[in-house]
Design goal:
Shape: globular
Number of strands: 6
Number of helices: 7
Order of helices and strands: EHHEHEHEHHEEH
Mean pLDDT: 95
Structural class: alpha/beta
Largest sheet: 6 strands, parallel
Distance between the termini: 17 Å
Bound molecules: 3-methylbut-3-enyl trihydrogen diphosphate, magnesium ion
Length: 227
Protein backbone atom coordinates (compact mmCIF):
# COMPACT_ATOMS: atom_id res chain seq x y z
CA UNK A 1 0.00 0.00 0.00
CA UNK A 2 1.22 3.48 -0.81
CA UNK A 3 2.28 5.05 2.47
CA UNK A 4 3.62 8.43 1.63
CA UNK A 5 4.07 10.93 -1.10
CA UNK A 6 7.49 11.80 -2.37
CA UNK A 7 7.65 15.57 -2.66
CA UNK A 8 11.22 16.45 -1.80
CA UNK A 9 14.05 14.25 -3.05
CA UNK A 10 17.70 14.93 -2.21
CA UNK A 11 20.71 13.23 -3.76
CA UNK A 12 24.38 13.05 -2.78
CA UNK A 13 25.83 12.56 -6.25
CA UNK A 14 29.00 10.62 -5.48
CA UNK A 15 31.42 8.42 -7.41
CA UNK A 16 32.43 10.55 -10.40
CA UNK A 17 36.14 10.13 -9.68
CA UNK A 18 35.94 6.36 -9.28
CA UNK A 19 33.88 6.05 -12.48
CA UNK A 20 36.64 7.83 -14.41
CA UNK A 21 39.39 5.83 -12.73
CA UNK A 22 37.69 2.56 -13.72
CA UNK A 23 38.03 3.71 -17.33
CA UNK A 24 41.60 4.89 -16.99
CA UNK A 25 40.43 8.48 -17.47
CA UNK A 26 41.09 11.63 -15.49
CA UNK A 27 38.67 12.40 -12.63
CA UNK A 28 37.27 15.40 -14.49
CA UNK A 29 35.83 13.07 -17.16
CA UNK A 30 33.65 11.64 -14.42
CA UNK A 31 32.40 15.10 -13.51
CA UNK A 32 31.52 15.75 -17.16
CA UNK A 33 29.52 12.53 -17.40
CA UNK A 34 27.98 13.26 -14.00
CA UNK A 35 26.64 16.58 -15.30
CA UNK A 36 24.80 14.74 -18.10
CA UNK A 37 23.19 12.48 -15.54
CA UNK A 38 21.98 15.56 -13.62
CA UNK A 39 20.08 16.59 -16.75
CA UNK A 40 18.38 13.16 -17.14
CA UNK A 41 17.45 12.89 -13.47
CA UNK A 42 16.11 16.46 -13.39
CA UNK A 43 13.94 15.75 -16.40
CA UNK A 44 12.62 12.57 -14.74
CA UNK A 45 11.72 14.53 -11.59
CA UNK A 46 10.08 17.37 -13.56
CA UNK A 47 7.78 14.82 -15.18
CA UNK A 48 7.08 12.87 -11.99
CA UNK A 49 3.56 13.43 -10.64
CA UNK A 50 4.48 14.13 -7.00
CA UNK A 51 8.09 15.33 -6.83
CA UNK A 52 8.17 19.10 -6.30
CA UNK A 53 11.76 19.67 -5.20
CA UNK A 54 15.06 18.02 -6.11
CA UNK A 55 18.07 19.06 -4.03
CA UNK A 56 21.45 17.96 -5.40
CA UNK A 57 24.77 18.07 -3.57
CA UNK A 58 27.20 19.39 -6.18
CA UNK A 59 30.05 20.93 -4.15
CA UNK A 60 30.65 20.79 -0.41
CA UNK A 61 32.46 23.23 1.87
CA UNK A 62 35.06 20.45 2.24
CA UNK A 63 35.59 19.98 -1.53
CA UNK A 64 38.03 22.94 -1.61
CA UNK A 65 40.55 20.43 -0.22
CA UNK A 66 40.77 18.83 -3.68
CA UNK A 67 43.60 19.57 -6.12
CA UNK A 68 43.40 23.13 -7.45
CA UNK A 69 42.97 21.95 -11.04
CA UNK A 70 40.00 19.75 -10.16
CA UNK A 71 38.32 22.59 -8.23
CA UNK A 72 38.88 24.96 -11.15
CA UNK A 73 37.47 22.43 -13.56
CA UNK A 74 34.36 21.97 -11.42
CA UNK A 75 33.79 25.74 -11.34
CA UNK A 76 34.16 26.02 -15.12
CA UNK A 77 31.92 23.01 -15.65
CA UNK A 78 29.23 24.59 -13.50
CA UNK A 79 29.45 27.87 -15.42
CA UNK A 80 29.22 26.12 -18.76
CA UNK A 81 26.52 23.77 -17.56
CA UNK A 82 24.22 26.53 -16.30
CA UNK A 83 24.64 28.40 -19.56
CA UNK A 84 23.74 25.35 -21.65
CA UNK A 85 21.01 24.20 -19.30
CA UNK A 86 18.81 27.28 -19.44
CA UNK A 87 16.90 26.01 -22.44
CA UNK A 88 16.21 22.64 -20.77
CA UNK A 89 15.08 24.40 -17.58
CA UNK A 90 12.56 26.42 -19.56
CA UNK A 91 11.37 23.46 -21.62
CA UNK A 92 10.91 21.22 -18.58
CA UNK A 93 9.37 23.93 -16.39
CA UNK A 94 12.24 23.76 -13.90
CA UNK A 95 12.94 26.55 -11.48
CA UNK A 96 16.64 26.73 -10.56
CA UNK A 97 17.75 27.63 -7.04
CA UNK A 98 21.12 27.44 -5.26
CA UNK A 99 22.10 27.07 -1.61
CA UNK A 100 25.53 27.46 -0.02
CA UNK A 101 28.09 30.22 0.31
CA UNK A 102 28.68 31.38 -3.24
CA UNK A 103 30.73 34.44 -2.24
CA UNK A 104 33.92 32.48 -2.84
CA UNK A 105 33.01 31.82 -6.49
CA UNK A 106 34.16 34.07 -9.35
CA UNK A 107 31.98 37.11 -10.09
CA UNK A 108 31.16 35.59 -13.46
CA UNK A 109 29.89 32.35 -11.93
CA UNK A 110 27.95 34.23 -9.24
CA UNK A 111 26.27 36.29 -11.94
CA UNK A 112 25.40 33.18 -13.94
CA UNK A 113 23.80 31.63 -10.84
CA UNK A 114 21.72 34.74 -10.08
CA UNK A 115 20.73 35.18 -13.74
CA UNK A 116 19.60 31.55 -13.98
CA UNK A 117 17.54 31.88 -10.80
CA UNK A 118 15.93 35.03 -12.14
CA UNK A 119 15.23 33.58 -15.62
CA UNK A 120 13.55 30.44 -14.25
CA UNK A 121 11.72 31.83 -11.23
CA UNK A 122 8.24 31.42 -12.73
CA UNK A 123 8.72 27.75 -13.71
CA UNK A 124 6.56 25.52 -11.56
CA UNK A 125 6.90 21.84 -12.49
CA UNK A 126 9.98 21.28 -10.33
CA UNK A 127 12.38 23.29 -8.19
CA UNK A 128 15.93 22.07 -8.64
CA UNK A 129 18.20 23.23 -5.81
CA UNK A 130 21.94 22.87 -6.34
CA UNK A 131 23.99 22.82 -3.14
CA UNK A 132 27.12 24.78 -4.04
CA UNK A 133 29.90 25.31 -1.51
CA UNK A 134 27.29 23.99 0.87
CA UNK A 135 27.88 22.67 4.37
CA UNK A 136 25.05 21.90 6.73
CA UNK A 137 26.87 23.01 9.87
CA UNK A 138 27.67 26.36 8.27
CA UNK A 139 24.04 26.68 7.18
CA UNK A 140 22.77 26.02 10.72
CA UNK A 141 25.25 28.45 12.31
CA UNK A 142 24.26 31.11 9.76
CA UNK A 143 20.58 30.54 10.48
CA UNK A 144 21.11 30.91 14.23
CA UNK A 145 23.08 34.13 13.74
CA UNK A 146 20.45 35.63 11.41
CA UNK A 147 17.67 34.76 13.85
CA UNK A 148 19.60 36.32 16.75
CA UNK A 149 20.36 39.45 14.70
CA UNK A 150 16.60 39.81 14.14
CA UNK A 151 16.01 39.48 17.87
CA UNK A 152 14.24 36.14 17.37
CA UNK A 153 13.97 33.39 19.90
CA UNK A 154 15.58 30.13 18.69
CA UNK A 155 12.72 27.70 18.14
CA UNK A 156 12.44 24.82 15.67
CA UNK A 157 10.02 26.81 13.53
CA UNK A 158 12.19 29.93 13.62
CA UNK A 159 15.35 28.05 12.81
CA UNK A 160 13.68 26.24 9.89
CA UNK A 161 12.64 29.63 8.58
CA UNK A 162 16.18 31.05 8.74
CA UNK A 163 17.84 28.10 7.03
CA UNK A 164 18.74 28.56 3.38
CA UNK A 165 16.39 25.69 2.55
CA UNK A 166 13.08 26.76 4.04
CA UNK A 167 11.29 24.73 1.37
CA UNK A 168 10.37 21.53 3.16
CA UNK A 169 11.82 18.55 4.95
CA UNK A 170 13.42 15.91 2.76
CA UNK A 171 11.27 12.83 2.15
CA UNK A 172 13.98 10.68 0.59
CA UNK A 173 17.76 10.97 0.47
CA UNK A 174 19.74 8.88 -2.00
CA UNK A 175 23.52 8.57 -1.94
CA UNK A 176 25.26 6.89 -4.84
CA UNK A 177 28.64 5.13 -4.96
CA UNK A 178 28.24 2.90 -1.91
CA UNK A 179 29.49 5.37 0.70
CA UNK A 180 27.35 5.16 3.84
CA UNK A 181 27.59 8.70 5.19
CA UNK A 182 25.96 12.12 5.05
CA UNK A 183 29.11 14.27 4.52
CA UNK A 184 27.66 17.45 6.08
CA UNK A 185 24.55 17.55 3.88
CA UNK A 186 21.21 18.89 5.18
CA UNK A 187 21.60 17.61 8.75
CA UNK A 188 18.55 19.50 10.02
CA UNK A 189 16.29 18.74 7.06
CA UNK A 190 17.10 15.00 7.08
CA UNK A 191 15.76 14.37 10.60
CA UNK A 192 12.97 12.08 9.42
CA UNK A 193 14.02 11.33 5.85
CA UNK A 194 14.05 7.88 4.42
CA UNK A 195 17.59 6.94 3.37
CA UNK A 196 18.65 4.91 0.35
CA UNK A 197 22.22 3.96 -0.46
CA UNK A 198 23.08 2.47 -3.84
CA UNK A 199 26.47 1.14 -4.98
CA UNK A 200 25.91 2.65 -8.44
CA UNK A 201 28.46 5.35 -9.27
CA UNK A 202 26.73 8.65 -10.09
CA UNK A 203 27.73 8.67 -13.80
CA UNK A 204 26.02 5.25 -14.15
CA UNK A 205 22.83 6.31 -12.34
CA UNK A 206 19.71 6.21 -14.53
CA UNK A 207 16.07 7.31 -14.42
CA UNK A 208 15.07 3.63 -14.37
CA UNK A 209 17.11 2.99 -11.19
CA UNK A 210 15.53 6.10 -9.68
CA UNK A 211 12.13 4.71 -10.62
CA UNK A 212 12.90 1.52 -8.66
CA UNK A 213 14.12 3.51 -5.66
CA UNK A 214 10.97 5.66 -5.69
CA UNK A 215 8.85 2.47 -5.72
CA UNK A 216 10.89 1.18 -2.76
CA UNK A 217 10.26 4.46 -0.91
CA UNK A 218 6.55 4.32 -1.62
CA UNK A 219 6.33 0.84 -0.09
CA UNK A 220 7.92 1.97 3.18
CA UNK A 221 5.99 2.85 6.29
CA UNK A 222 7.01 6.17 7.85
CA UNK A 223 6.00 6.42 11.48
CA UNK A 224 7.56 9.73 12.61
CA UNK A 225 7.81 8.38 16.13
CA UNK A 226 4.18 7.21 16.21
CA UNK A 227 2.91 3.66 16.06
C1 LIG B 1 31.14 13.48 -6.53
O1 LIG B 1 32.06 12.58 -7.04
C2 LIG B 1 31.31 14.86 -7.14
C3 LIG B 1 31.82 15.88 -6.21
C4 LIG B 1 32.06 15.71 -4.95
C5 LIG B 1 32.09 17.18 -6.79
P1 LIG B 1 33.53 12.45 -6.45
O2 LIG B 1 34.41 13.40 -7.18
O3 LIG B 1 33.51 12.62 -4.97
O4 LIG B 1 33.90 10.97 -6.84
P2 LIG B 1 34.70 9.91 -5.96
O5 LIG B 1 33.99 9.81 -4.65
O6 LIG B 1 36.09 10.43 -5.81
O7 LIG B 1 34.62 8.66 -6.75
C1 LIG C 1 30.02 14.65 -0.90
O1 LIG C 1 30.89 13.81 -1.60
C2 LIG C 1 29.91 15.96 -1.59
C3 LIG C 1 29.27 15.95 -2.91
C4 LIG C 1 28.72 14.91 -3.49
C5 LIG C 1 29.23 17.21 -3.57
P1 LIG C 1 32.42 13.68 -1.19
O2 LIG C 1 33.03 12.69 -2.11
O3 LIG C 1 33.05 15.02 -1.13
O4 LIG C 1 32.31 13.12 0.29
P2 LIG C 1 33.31 12.25 1.18
O5 LIG C 1 34.64 12.96 1.15
O6 LIG C 1 33.39 10.90 0.53
O7 LIG C 1 32.69 12.21 2.52
MG1 LIG D 1 33.28 11.30 -3.44
Amino acid sequence: MKQDTLKHLAIIMDGNGRWAKERGEKRVKGHEKGAEVVREITSYCANHPTIETLTLYAFSTENWKRPKLEVEFLMQLLERWLKNELEAYQQNGVRFEAIGDMSRFSKKLQKRIVDTQEATKDNSKLTQILALNYGSRAEIVGAVNRALADGQEITEANLSHYLQTPYSDIDLLIRTSGELRISNFLLWQLSYSELYFTPTLWPNFTPSELDEIVANFEARERRFGGV
